[in-house]
Structure formats: C-alpha cells, structure tokens
Amino acid sequence: MLFDHSRHEPLTICLWDKNIVEMEISLIIGDIEQSLLPGACWPTHPLDAESYSRGGPKWSAYAGAAGTIHALQILSQYGYKVSDLSNSLETVYQCFLKNPDVSVEPGLQIGELGILMPAILTQPDNVELSKRVIRCMEATVDLPLYEITSGQSGMMHAALALYRKTGKTQWKDLYVKGANALIDNWTQDKTTGEWLWQSQVFGPKRHYYGACHGLVGNANILLQGVDLLPDGYTEMIMERTISTLKLSVKKHDNLANWTLCTKPKIDKLLVQWCHGAAGIVTAMARTPSVDSQNSRLLDQLLEDTAELVWQAGPLVKGSNICHGTSGNGYAFLYLYRRTGNTLWLERARIFAMHAIEQCQKARLHYGQGRFTLWTGDAGLAIYLYHTLYPEKAAIPGLDLF
Q: What is the pLDDT of residue 52?
C-alpha cells in the first residue's frame, strides 16, 4: 500500500455548503479574538504543548502568536473584520528572545524571521526591522539545512515576497544568495542518479523528498524566483527535480507517493503537506507548464499523486495545514489552479467540510481552539476562504504573506 490506513479516517458525508464555510471562518476569527491573553499570546493547545520541550506560551510563525497574528492580517486583507494586532509583534519578538519555543534561531517557521515577517510586511520601510530581517536571512545562508523550517528555502520565500512587494534590491540579493547555497549543495547520487540535498534539520543527516524539508520544497522556491537567476536555470531545475521524482516514485495502478527520505532510507509513506504526496503536489503544481516531455511527465505524476491524496482520505491528525486535512486539501486547490479541472475543486471543498467537523470536534474535546497558523484553526480559516475563492489559493506563511 502507498499509505498507512491508520493515519486516515473516512470522509464526511456532508455536502459542500458555502454558508457553513463562511460561518466557520467567522467562528474561528471570533474564537481567536476572544481567547487572546495579556502579553500578546494565546492558550497553548495540548497537542502543541506535546510538540515542544519547553513549556509556556508559543511565539513562532509555525505554532505560536506570530503565525496567528499573520493569519489575522491575511484575513483582514480578504475583507474580514478582525483586530489588527500588528503592534503586538514587537512584544511577541521580545518574548521569543527571552523564552523561545525551541531555541533562538533565525529561520522562518520556528525562528526570528517568521516573527519579523508579518511586522515588516506592514512597515516595509522600517530601518530597524529591515536590519533584523537581513541579519536573520544572512544567518541562514551557510547553514547545512536546505529546507523551509529553518533553512535557506524558507528564507528565500520571505526574501522573494519582500522583493515582489517593495522592489528593493536587498531582498533580491538575499534570495539569490540563498539560491546559490541551494544549487551549490544540490548533489547527484552516483548510484541512483537522484539529485537531492542532505539536510541536517533537527540533527540527523537525511535526504528528504518532500515539501517542507526536501527536494520539491527547494525546487519550488528556486522556480518561483527563477527570473532572478541566470538563464537556463529553469530547464536545469526541472530536469533534476522531475528525473529524481521519476526515479524515486512508488506507484500502484494510477496512484503515486514517495518515501520519507533516503540515505538513510526511511520507507514511511506519508500523505501530508510536510512529508509525502500532498506536499509533492502543492510544491510542483506551481512549476511552469510547457510543451515538453518532462512537463507532461510531471502533469501525470501530479494527477496520480493527487488521486492518492483523495483515496487516502482526511488525516486523523486534524484540520491543520502542516500534517492535517487542510494541507491535503491545498493539493487539490493547487492542481485545480494548474489544470482547471473542477473535480479537484470539488474534492478540496469536501475536504473543507470534513476539516470543519474535525475542528468543531476538537474544540469540544479540548475545551479550546488551536490558535496557530500551521497546526491549527487560523490556518484552517484561510484554507476555508480559499475553497470559496480558489483563484487566490496559496499556502499562508509560505506562498502567501
């Protein structure tokens, strides 16, 4: 089998209802605003408390206050009436430095950069903020990570977003520095022919395939800013990435998936955004679609991979983006945007209905919401909005700032 049945649950029988979706978005926003604690933080959810070695409030973009504030900024841009908590980000930043979620580090999802990004997006000309952001970005360039959470590709998403927003060359230069670090450390296995990065994120040296820590996540951000790189890079990146996906894919009938990593080989077959099928789709569905053999091969792989996401069903881990039903639903939205096939939009919307049920059940079970961007309700609210307006679909805190 290409997925672990125990990680998934039967799909809801509820049909798509945009009124229920809109109501749930409003309920999540209300819950976030009513649950705000003094000191610019929210109650830590028991599931997030289990994920960290340090207790107390969480501050990061991944599972803390910065990500929740950023989600409210995005929802405000979409027309929802929400409290503007941008002025609280300095408090969040200082609290993170004093008592970090994991450790003081410069990266995007669990470090300083993820807290500074929603601040600088509202004040792009703030000199002090710019200095802090530049310092964090520079600090990631030479790390042996090559991934999104703490490494170069996460920094590059932030730098590219700032460059597209402001046109300032300092952000372009930082994106290019990150790209050079990725390309210089992208190596081919002489035995298998695969092109992979060796990441030391969280300690062990591993060669990952997925969207968060591996091949497709890095290829995605290289391709998003390829206009800033030398001519010919598009073809090189596409060739290396697609050939590696072809060499490493696990297939059964019209379904496709990839193992967690190789060297060392971990055969775990996950169907999530962070690892496995769903993230493969969201990362690679944004690549250029051209009339070439590689592009046609990629299109078929994406169809087969998204079909696996559907066949596997919603994740038991809940409604969140990183390793939950919303993240898998984004695979359908991204493929809908690439192909125009309404089947994928219909499936994204059914996953939305299921994610709403998961969120409501979890709120009753734990007696509180989960006030985070990547692991909880704030990210779900944005996913629900994107099922209403799929032309805007983009994963918040990564493809959307």
A: 57
37: three-class secondary structure by DSSP: strand
pLDDT digits (tens, 9 = 90+) for 99-111: 998 888 999 999 9
| Rounded-to-integer distance, Cα 348 and Cα 339, Å | 14
pTM (2 d.p.): 0.97
Write out the E strands in 250-296.
250-252, 255-257, 261-262
341-380: pLDDT as tens digits: 999 999 999 999 999 999 999 999 999 999 999 999 999 9
Strands 261-262 and 250-252: unpaired
Distance, CA of 119 to CA of 89 (rounded, Å): 6
Q: What is the pLDDT of residue 54?
A: 63
- By DSSP bridging, strand 195-196 and strand 187-188 are antiparallel
- The sign one gets for the Cα dihedral 141, 208, 185, 282 is negative
The whole-angstrom separation of Cα 253 and Cα 15 is: 29
The one-letter amino acid at 150: S
Q: Prior bond to 264 cis, omega within 30? A: yes
The secondary structure of the chain in percent helix, strand, coil, rounded to multiples of 5, reads: 55, 5, 40
Q: Which residues contact 269 (CB under 8 A, 6 or more apart)?
A: 1, 2, 3, 4, 250, 257, 258, 259, 260, 276
Rounded Cα–Cα distance for residues 14 and 263 (Å)? 43
| DSSP codes, 303-360 | HHHHHHHHHH-SBTT-S-SSSSHHHHHHHHHHHHHHH--HHHHHHHHHHHHHHHHHHH
As beta bridge partners, residue 262 has 207
Query: What's the pLDDT score for residue 294?
Result: 86
**C-alpha closest to that of 59 among 97, 86, 28, 32:** 97
pLDDT of 48 above 80:
yes
